Amino acid sequence: MSDEAIRKRTKETANKLFGKGIRLNPPYLMWREFDKDLANDFSKFITGNLYSRTVLTLPERQMAACAMLAAIRAGDELKLHVNAALNVGCDPKKLTEIFFQVATYAGMPAVNEALEVYREVLKERDEWPIK
Amino acid sequence: MSDEAIRKRTKETANKLFGKGIRLNPPYLMWREFDKDLANDFSKFITGNLYSRTVLTLPERQMAACAMLAAIRAGDELKLHVNAALNVGCDPKKLTEIFFQVATYAGMPAVNEALEVYREVLKERDEWPIK
Amino acid sequence: MSDEAIRKRTKETANKLFGKGIRLNPPYLMWREFDKDLANDFSKFITGNLYSRTVLTLPERQMAACAMLAAIRAGDELKLHVNAALNVGCDPKKLTEIFFQVATYAGMPAVNEALEVYREVLKERDEWPIK
Amino acid sequence: MSDEAIRKRTKETANKLFGKGIRLNPPYLMWREFDKDLANDFSKFITGNLYSRTVLTLPERQMAACAMLAAIRAGDELKLHVNAALNVGCDPKKLTEIFFQVATYAGMPAVNEALEVYREVLKERDEWPIK
Amino acid sequence: MSDEAIRKRTKETANKLFGKGIRLNPPYLMWREFDKDLANDFSKFITGNLYSRTVLTLPERQMAACAMLAAIRAGDELKLHVNAALNVGCDPKKLTEIFFQVATYAGMPAVNEALEVYREVLKERDEWPIK
Amino acid sequence: MSDEAIRKRTKETANKLFGKGIRLNPPYLMWREFDKDLANDFSKFITGNLYSRTVLTLPERQMAACAMLAAIRAGDELKLHVNAALNVGCDPKKLTEIFFQVATYAGMPAVNEALEVYREVLKERDEWPIK
Questions:
Q1: Closest CA to C104 of C70, C77, C79, C81
Q2: Over chain D (131 residues), what is each successive 10-residue block's mean pLDDT?
Q3: How far apart are the CA of D126 and the nearest CA of chain C, in angstroms?
Q4: What region, left, alpha or beta, does residue E48 occupy, with left being phi > 0 and alpha being psi -120 to 50 degrees?
Q5: Do B112 and F34 touch (CB under 8 A)?
Q6: Three-class SS of A53-115
């Protein structure tokens, strides 16, 4: 795939995932402040390649990403990806359910931290309470 | 819900998830050797309640469980749940994809440990290589 | 055990652990905002069953819970449980000691985060410095 | 405290904790193969100082150590410390209970890995099943 | 080594690492509020012994410490050690590079949290942007 | 950079890091069995891009990688990278030192698991004991 094509795909996928909803400082902007070229490489590999794959649909991918981020208790990153999950049409009730299901595998601190982040994002999006 | 109903649901869900595929020593049997009553309580709460909920379909729940277990690098538990995922009809290609997607959030050691477990389960189930 | 009996035990144990000391938003209230029935199920299983068991005394259980939460660096949850530990009569000097003993197993970041939370709780309870 | 006194205390505490029960290769021997002086420094600081303190009784300290090691899923180290816990007189039923209580904070993979190690140690000590 | 010599070495190494740059509350001061003697023991063992060793140069040791703290996502401790790394002459560009290299092993949440802390320290030191 | 140039750089860097020492199944071969194209993408991004950068020298990069992998207790991956560290000329005494320095940040289970892996690699390379 040409570099031009990858750039285009990176932009399109980034837009679907992060182009709406709450305002956040995407990590990409921070990477750029440290190293512009490497920031582009990360962006093209992560967003343009991994996130743009089609084996999973985008909502399926975001459900899995939210499950992982909740389990490893990465709240800031979860905020980005729960917003992205809602942007690509994940069912908000299914996201809630995933966070409760974390209990068995990673324990209640992980559940509680994820629900806290999730509720905050829903409020900022004016989509709380879930209907 | 009556205790009888919960027992029935526990058994049915356990059967769907763990009743086929590779032979494993389910944690439930170990719990029983330590404390029979508590083993039943855990089983009814986890399998009879959490795993039996219907907000997510069973395949969706298993996809999320596999994503979490890969991310926290819990190989033994992943073995159980990847087998269960295949038992309830998860697409093996989508499971592969989830394990590769772990890279961004939890790094390559998590990816590699998950793929290792997954390949082992597929071989024991005689479903390797994935078609 | 009847559902009524479990509710009663849940309430009694919750009261012993969380009914005094600092004001915190218990996770139970957040769970309820997402799913009222599941919130009750978690509460009955965790507080009414696990926390109400008598193999360990409540102070012994809280010492172990604080040890675990310090080791996995779950500060918000630790705040709840260190307050509960003090409510059920754990010796404040023994809690300090547990947090220092974390050093060998989980390293100094875990020690420091736990002591920080602990000192904050003691101050809010007006029990600082420890006598 | 004189260096001689610390050496004596290190030896006494090491003997109480690790002088009986199952045969294990203590990490100290491995440290020595890499750096003899540093091995002694670690041993004197950890065993002669931290483990020899008296704010917690030795059984209380071991209960907390087992809780932490189970929560962070450090199976090899847990093997050493569960054996030491039994050596200093911890109630085997209370140790079981601690491992089940891990569920709420660190999830079932941590519970299962701890019980697995614990059962193995009890068998090697010929103390299984717990009476 | 005499206790006097260890105290001297502790002080010298603490001064090289933490005597300049941003103002932080060193954990040592918090330890002291809980237990003065134990605080001194930790300080002498960690700073006077481990940090004062000469197998690695101080900048090499700080590079490794920053790599570890980024990988385990211990932001508060990283703040201390990134400041110390700059105090002992680590190349700021190499520190950036280490944080990007975390991606492969511990994933992007670890990278992002580390860069965030690092940028904050650089700004407080008035050394941002890196030249 | 042209795709041809990246392939070449991937191969060269892989050869420097993994072309000597102990025989291991590189994760790349496993990735290929699951998805040939994605395996190449990962390899080019990780080895051809990240590992081939020159801000850190290869030995500096490997020291940092070993520090991270020890801290997150990723033994299999550490085995690969400690072997690679020795292949690119890291001082074996400095690697030992890094693993001991893990104690402060991630605790003794991480130290012990890392030294265990390291000794095993040194023995397989016939470089044990370290001179």
A1: C70
A2: 93 97 93 98 98 98 98 98 98 98 98 98 98 89
A3: 23
A4: alpha
A5: no
A6: CCCCCHHHHHHHHHHHHHHCCCHHHHHHHHHHHHHCCCCHHHHHHHHHHHHHHHCHHHHHHHH
pLDDT in tens, B47-74: 999 999 999 999 999 999 999 999 999 9
| Nearest Cα to Cα of residue C103 among D54, F98, F102 | F102
pLDDT tens for residues F64-95? 999 999 999 999 999 999 999 999 999 999 99
- Angstrom distances, CA of residue D51 to CA of D27, D99, F39: 15, 21, 48
A41, A49, A53 member nearest F49 (Cβ) = A41
Taking CA atoms, E107 is separated from B110, C95, E72, in Å, by: 9, 34, 11
pLDDT of residue C52: 98
Mark B8-17 as b/e (b = at least 16 C-beta within 10 Å). ebbeebbebb
Residue count of chain C: 131
Q: Nearest residue of C to residue B43 by CA position?
A: C45
What percent of chain E clears pLDDT 70, i.e. is strictly above it?
A: 100
Mark yes or no for CB contact D130/B69 under 8 Å: no
- Which one of A104, A105, A107 has the shortest CB-CB distance to D105? A107
D53: CB partners within 8 A, 6+ apart? C97, D61, E38
Q: Enter the ipTM.
A: 0.97
Is B34 close to D115, i.e. CB distance below 8 A? yes
Closest to C35 in 3D by CA, of E53, A98, F4, D52? A98
